[in-house]
Every structure is written in C-alpha cells, then in structure tokens.
Design brief:
With 293 residues, the chain is α+β, with helices and mostly antiparallel strands. Helices cover 29% and strands 28% of the residues. The chain binds 4'-deoxy-4'-aminopyridoxal-5'-phosphate (PMP). Residues 35, 180, 183-185, 205, 207-210, 243-245 line the site of 4'-deoxy-4'-aminopyridoxal-5'-phosphate (PMP). 4'-deoxy-4'-aminopyridoxal-5'-phosphate binds at residues 35, 180, 183-185, 205, 207-210, 243-245.
C-alpha cells in the first residue's frame, strides 16, 4: 500500500509530495508543526494538539490555513488513507510561499502539509527497558513553548546522543538546570521519592504526553512537583524517564553514563507508564488543554 500525503489542498502519493522552493518553511523555518500519536485507531490528545497549534500560530502571527474543524477532517482523512491504527500524524503549517524577504509577506496563504506513518503498537515491555541520556548545553532560542520547525539545536543534540550511544540528550540551561530533551520532556523521581518535571514556561515545550501524565498522576493521587531540577539532582535521582507522543513514557536508566537507581526501570516510572496508557485509553488525552504560556 502506498503512502498518501496532503499538500496544500491535495492528497498525493507520499513520494511525489513537494512544496515550492520559496516556501518560507523551507527558506526560513518560518512555520510550526504538531505530531499526533494514533493509539488503537484513536488520535491521542487531539484537542491538546489543536490548542497548542493555536498557541504556536498565534505567537508567530501565522494565519490558520483553514478552520481547526476542517483541519481535523484532513488529519483524519490522511490517517484513514494510510490505514494508521497505531502510528503518527505529522502536520506542518508555514507562512506560505513568497519572494524571499525576511519580514512577513502581505497576502500570502499559509501552507499546510499533513503526513502519516504507521508504527508498531505501543509496547510496554519495550518502554520498560531503560535507555541512556546525555546532557548538553541548551543553545536554543528563548521560546521553546512555540512548536517551531526551526530545530537545528534539537537535531544536533539528538545526533550527539546517537553518536554517544544514548537515546536522548537532555538540555541544560545557563543555571545548570535541565529544561527538556531534544524531542521529549524530562522527568525524575528524586531521592526523596518526589516526581518532578520542569514547569510549563517559555523554557520547555509543554508536551501533550506530559500533560496526560500529570493528569493521570492527579487522578491516581500521585504527588508531583512542576519545577526545574539540576543535573546534580538528576544524577542522584532514584528514577528517570522521558515522555513524548513518539516515546510515550520511556524509562531512563543512565545519565551521562552514570547509572540511575539500580539501572532498571523504577517503580514509580513503571506505574506512571501503566497509568498513562489507562488514561489515554479512557480519556483520550489531557482534558485541561489551555495551559500554554
Ligand atoms: N519537548 C520537545 C522539544 C519536543 O520536540 C517534544 C515532542 N514533540 C516534546 C517535548 C514532547 O511533546 P509531546 O508529548 O506533545 O509529543
């Protein structure tokens, strides 16, 4: 079965899908994106992704290419045409095609691309196997709350992780605090047993998976703290994990080669994975989705 993509009004074979060379996304990374997980035939956190998309577009003053409702129809159609039961949907909106000039063009229509990819179903056993992360300086701009396609520091960081044999790179700001991973949010369980992830601010992308895990924690009465944590605190942590639409809840068992806990998935991490999966299967995703800053 061949893959189908949506590009500016048309469904086309994935291999032929293309945008103009003067698309501002191509020339300036002047665009935003969302990645939706599809789990057992349902989109996870659709409302959350749409609200975050609205935030990203609004902050950059990029027009919606169509209503959120129409966009929802297209996303579902791309998913359907690619027979995605488990997988990912990628959506990108750029400021459109215009003669190259840094300032915003007048009267340009936003450009929209939607693709979908089938993936193996969520595999708890696999997620429970611990992975390593490395720490790297956070050299990004100052608006990580905007899900911009401008990802150079993230891809360089992820490549560094890969070359170090690690799964992810956690980025560290000038104060020695871990903000997040290059494509995921970072979590620890401190030596005192406190579940911690960075608070939502301009310093991180407020992950939809992060929000689901927090809501699942509230529902189950698991205490947590949304605050910054240092590299030292992470090194001494009992447990660690990452969250994202692609990685779900994935155990981290080493940081910069230093073993976390006993080198195996921690108890609370394992519980949060179960709670998360139950949560998305029953609630579909976070209910409180207006938490952007
Ligand atoms: N932070 C960054 C920098 C990311 O790229 C991602 C993945 N989109 C996340 C966090 C996690 O977000 P989500 O749970 O919405 O996938």
């Amino acid at each position: 079965m061949s893959r189908i993509a949506y590009v500016n009004g048309q469904y086309v074979p994935h291999q032929d899908a293309a945008v103009h060379i003067e698309d501002r996304g191509y020339q300036f990374a002047d665009g935003v994106y969302e990645v939706f997980a599809v789990h057992q035939g349902r989109m996870v956190g659709e409302q959350g992704h749409m609200d975050r998309l609205a935030h990203s577009l609004g902050e950059l003053r990029i027009d919606w290419p169509m209503s959120a409702r129409a966009l929802g129809v297209i996303i579902r159609e791309v998913s359907r045409r690619n027979r995605v039961r488990d997988g990912l949907i990628y959506l990108q909106i750029t400021r459109g095609v215009a003669r190259r000039d840094h300032s915003f063009p007048d009267n340009t229509e936003s450009a929209l691309v939607v693709t979908a990819r089938r993936m193996p179903p969520l595999d708890k056993e696999q997620l429970r196997k611990g992975v390593g992360v490395i720490t790297i300086p956070d050299i990004r701009w100052q608006r990580h709350d905007i899900k911009s396609v401008s990802l150079l520091p993230n891809i360089i960081g992820k490549q560094q992780a890969r070359e170090a044999g690690a799964y992810e790179a956690w980025m560290v700001n000038n104060e020695g605090m871990i903000t997040e991973g290059t494509a995921s949010n970072a979590w620890i369980v401190t030596k005192d047993g406190e579940l911690v992830t960075h608070n939502a601010s301009h310093a991180i992308l407020n992950g939809i998976t992060r929000l689901s895990v927090l809501e699942a924690a509230v529902a189950a009465g698991v205490p947590f703290s949304e605050r910054a944590f240092s590299v030292e605190e992470a090194m001494q942590a009992k447990e660690a994990f990452v969250t994202s639409s692609t990685s779900h809840v994935k155990a981290v068992t080493s940081i910069d080669g230093h073993s976390i806990g006993n080198g195996h998935i921690g108890e609370l991490t394992s519980r949060m994975l179960d709670l998360y999966v139950d949560f998305i299967e029953t609630k579909g995703g976070p209910q409180n989705t207006n938490t952007w800053n």
